[in-house]
Amino acid sequence: MRTLLFAGLLLSALPSVAHEGASGIVKERMDRFKETKEQMKELRGLLKAGDTAAAGALASQIAEWARVLPEHFPEDSNPAPSEALDDIWLDWDGFMKVANDFQTAAEAMAAQPSMANFKPLGGSCKACHDSYRE
Known about the structure:
Largest sheet: none
Structural class: mainly alpha
Shape: globular
CATH architecture: Up-down Bundle
Number of helices: 6
């Protein structure tokens, strides 16, 4: 039991440790991605509960982040502890495609909150992480 408790405490501390030492634009984007992860969990719960009004409002917040996300990746903004791969800047067009896909999916969710729109939104996050995150 103690081992499980310790493991849980350790895992819950990992995100804050991962952000330790981050500053400036890197810290901003890491914080925004952490916030988005929590918003996605909340969004799923709202959809399951049938609260489409709250889900739409939350999805609008995610869509707003999606609109400004590329601005948080200026050149030479990849010092540790950033988890971004250099491929973002080496394949800017590809990165912009997945960023635009995220924005499109978030806007669709905001316009029509549903589990049918949740899957593409989550898929857009995964597509970017698979290609552009450590």
